Amino acid sequence: MLRTKILLGLAILIGSCQGFSTTFSTRSNYVVNSNVVKQEPNKKSLTLLTTTSTHQRSTTTKTGTSLSAVTIPPEVLTSFLPPILGFYRSEFGVSYAYGLATALSGVSILRRFSPATNTVLPMHAMALIFYGFRLNAFLAIRTLLSARLRAFIDKIEERAKARGNRLSRAPFIISCGFLYYGLAAPLFFTSQLTSEMMKPSWVLPFMKTLVGLEWFGFGIAAIGDFTKTFVKKTKGDDTLVTSGIFSLLRHPNYTGEMIGWTANSVCGLVGFTLLAKAATSRAALLKLIGNFIIQSLGLVGITFVLMQATTGLEKRQQEKYGDKPEYASWVKSSWGGWTLPAKKEMKAESKIELDESQIEEYGSGI
């Protein structure tokens, strides 16, 4: 699928930036020495000490050993472990894993950095935590309420199995992990800001405005999901939802997410700029640049996915309801959100892709 190819491409690009990514601490230290693994609970960083060989070439060759520290950011785990759900159910890798990775990354960063020295971080991290847990609660309720949706999910799983064994899903699952890591990357910047760095008078009000816009966008998505689920449950799955927030926005869940993720990334951009200005070494600057590239690719990836979903839903609604006066009136008085440019020549889509995309009728989930 086109979506799979895009995510795999982003995975390759983001993976090339991992060497520059900023590392963080956790609460325990593991030292690997020969064949012995020892845990030191009083340390505050996860450090793997590996033995490497160095060769000195002269008249004789001498072999020595040196220790190099490798740190593993907790956000690697919170971003890459949830997509493993996709091995169990294909659809879970882009639904429950999406929400879980987002929320856990926010929790991980919030609990390790002190909000006392950074008034932006708590609300920024809580926005991602709210989005992730809210999304998963919605997905669970939506699935319980809709027999048709459960049938769609079962059909997706059957066709995923027909395309290959569960292990064949690994490339796509890994690419999802890279995407979720990119979405959490802006928090890497805001979590490191100090009051000294935020002294310019414009910084704090501007960043608070961005975080407020992020909450606003995720709030719109939440209202849209709730409204669509309620209407379809009470009036039937084939009902065209035009009431409430849908009277203004035809796809508030996708539009809201795009607003939220864009504000999230711009907030990260401000943090990156301030940290880069205060960087004291070339290595520190390279780490910042690496994370900024990851953040940018994450925004590009989620924006493309959401625009693709919006474009597809617009097309299907037009085909399904286009001959109804109610639909024509609704289109004139509402905004469809951001969509992909119209293609001059539409390629024939596989039946699997069409069936999978219909799940978007029910609300959020990439």
Automatic annotation (TrEMBL):
<keyword id="KW-1133">Transmembrane helix</keyword>
<feature type="transmembrane region" description="Helical">
    <location>
        <begin position="170"/>
        <end position="190"/>
    </location>
</feature>
<keyword id="KW-0812">Transmembrane</keyword>
<protein>
    <recommendedName>
        <fullName>Steroid 5-alpha reductase C-terminal domain-containing protein</fullName>
    </recommendedName>
</protein>
<feature type="transmembrane region" description="Helical">
    <location>
        <begin position="202"/>
        <end position="223"/>
    </location>
</feature>
<feature type="transmembrane region" description="Helical">
    <location>
        <begin position="288"/>
        <end position="307"/>
    </location>
</feature>
<dbReference type="InterPro" id="IPR010721">
    <property type="entry name" value="UstE-like"/>
</dbReference>
<dbReference type="Pfam" id="PF06966">
    <property type="entry name" value="DUF1295"/>
</dbReference>
<keyword id="KW-0732">Signal</keyword>
<dbReference type="GO" id="GO:0016020">
    <property type="term" value="C:membrane"/>
</dbReference>
<feature type="transmembrane region" description="Helical">
    <location>
        <begin position="128"/>
        <end position="149"/>
    </location>
</feature>
<feature type="signal peptide">
    <location>
        <begin position="1"/>
        <end position="19"/>
    </location>
</feature>
<keyword id="KW-0472">Membrane</keyword>
